[in-house]
Amino acid sequence: MAAKIPWLRVAVGVVAAAVAIGLPFNNEAETVQVFSQVLYLAIAAMGLNLLTGFNGQVSIGHGAFFGVGAFTSAILVVDHGWYLEATIPVAALLAAALGVLVGFPALRVKGLYLALVTLGLAVLFPSVVKKFVEGPGGVPLLQPKRSQVASLIPSLADDQYQYFVCLGVMVLLFVLAASLIRSRAGRAMIAVRDQEVAASTVGINVAQVKVASFAISAAYAGIAGSLSVLVNRVADGSNPLIYFQYSIEFLIAVVIGGAATLTGPFLGSALLVGIRKRFEGTEAMAPALLGVALIAAVFLMPDGLVGLYRRLAARVRSSVPSEPSDTAATTVEAAVPINLNKGANQ
Questions:
Q1: DSSP state of 183
Q2: What is the spatial distance between Cα 185 and Cα 291, in angstroms, rounded to a whole number?
Q3: CATH code of the region 18-302
Q4: What contacts 196, CB < 8 A, 6 or more positions away?
Q5: H or E stretch covering 120
């Protein structure tokens, strides 16, 4: 029997693709930049979700991996004249290498202790940057020239080009994440999250899975950091708390959108950037609203926006009476004469 085509999902996908492609042509440059910020933050949150949502390792240090990607791209562009697009794979590799270095010590700690270890990484990163990176005036801040991050496609404005680069990278990484989760390696990640001891007894190399998850997750964050330089034209290490703040934002995006879901990080990132943009003039209001949103999500939507949608959809489906299938009707009709014959024989 041929499998049914999920027409609703196909239609939603087509509409979403059309909207995504049309956005940069129907909005001002400043708004397009906001959309680009949503995309690269979604990439970082997607990477954290692979580690925390699907593998069960809590990290509050992904801002450091994000910073590694940002400064890698900025240094290669400003000091060595690279095209920024060519620096993205390098940023991913260096962030993944740092993820491996963090992943091995993380094998000895779990839960809150792992969160504290990664938190120290995010807080320590700006101090390390100050020692090795010196921008104009001695400040650890690098700003590529506008010409160094300009559009490589003449028909696209700079903001449109940057948006499409972020969109293309996000779609590619989304497909890779979906393929990973559905693969044998992804099932091993989930098994380690749910029952680590049971997973080891059936032959899963728990240490290898955990370290690999850290590396892949860090690579996603590094790519997001690289794209942030393309969009914002800056890699900033002057604020000692900036990468700690990024780490918290990634975690908020995962929790609000829905941990262990594929689309949740994007929804959470869109909400996060929307709140931040709406109250960007007030230093205290945006963090306060993000905190309120996180508390509301934990109490009202423990499985995030995606989980809320799934529950509502299941409730709607259960409220619609189902019609008896042809197979069931045929079975009833076939059973009636048999019973009658039995009664006649008796």
A1: S
A2: 34
A3: 1.10.3470
A4: 206
A5: helix 111-132
Q: Contacts from 179-187 at CB under 8 Å and sequence distance 24+? A: 180/50, 180/216, 181/50, 181/54, 181/262, 185/209, 185/212, 186/54
Predicted pLDDT of residue 322 = 57
Show the tokens assigned to 34. 């906001």
Contact criterion met (CB below 8 Å) for 118 and 104: no
CA distance 212 to 63: 19
Separation CA 200–CA 205 (nearest Å): 6
Q: Look at residue 169 in the predicted model and tell me its pLDDT.
A: 98
* CA–CA separation, 41 and 69 (whole Å): 13
Indicate whether 110 pLDDT > 70. Answer: yes
Distance CA 118, CA 64 (A): 9
What is the mean predicted confidence (pLDDT) over 297-301? 81
Q: Where are the domains of the chain?
A: 18-302
Dig out the tokens for 307 from the structure.
């989980």
| Residue 238: both structure tokens together | 């002057």
Place of tokens 């960007």: 280
CA–CA dist 70, 65 (Å, integer): 9
What pTM value is reported for the model?
0.89
Backbone CA torsion sign across 135, 169, 47, 257 = positive
Please check the confidence at residue 266 and state whether its pLDDT lies above 70.
Answer: yes
Specify whether the CB–CB gap between 85 and 107 falls below 8 A.
no
Question: Measuring CA to CA, which residue among 234, 257, 255, 243 is closest to residue 310?
Answer: 257
